[in-house]
Specification:
Blueprint (H helix, E strand, L loop, with lengths): L2 H28 L5 H13 L8 E3 L8 E3 L6 H16 L13 H14 L5 H14 L1
Antiparallel strand pairs: 1-2
Helix pairs in contact: 1-3, 2-3
Length: 139
């Protein structure tokens, strides 16, 4: 693979990621205040008809009676179902990393910085530091 081919692929992938994020923001505005079920129902035909899936909708049975559902017999059913679920979660903001700010005491930060400096002398420094801390807690 040539360097220029790699650059094109990387840039295309990043363009796709940015486009996805922008479209999710637009969908959030469109479906603001809607329930997950309402969002899923609204997105279902559009995701199902996406050219990479093309999963037909069929009449639901059992608890899904009276609604249209993805055809579970279709070869792209699982991929389509997962894409729909991910998109609903992204619109609702449930796939976003939930990081809680934690105030680290100065003495712990100092020891962690020393550990990081020591581990940086080895290959796989982050994994080494994580393993060392895990072993310290276990011991």
């Amino acid at each position: 693979m040539s360097k220029s081919n790699s650059k094109t692929l990387v840039h295309s992938a990043l363009d796709g990621a940015f486009t996805y994020a922008e479209m999710i923001e637009a969908l959030r505005a469109l479906y603001e205040g809607k329930t997950p079920e309402a969002i899923r129902a609204a997105l279902l035909p559009d995701v199902a008809s996406y050219r990479k899936y093309s999963v037909p909708l069929v009449k639901g049975e059992g608890k899904a009676e009276g609604t249209m559902v993805l055809d579970a017999e279709h070869p792209k059913y699982e991929a389509c179902r997962k894409a729909l679920g991910r998109m609903v979660k992204d619109i609702l903001g449930k796939n976003e990393a939930k990081t809680e700010e934690l105030e680290v005491p100065a003495e712990i930060l100092a020891v962690a910085q020393k550990l990081a400096k020591l581990c940086n002398e080895y290959e796989g420094a982050r994994k080494l530091a994580s393993t060392a801390i895990a072993q310290a807690f276990a011991g």
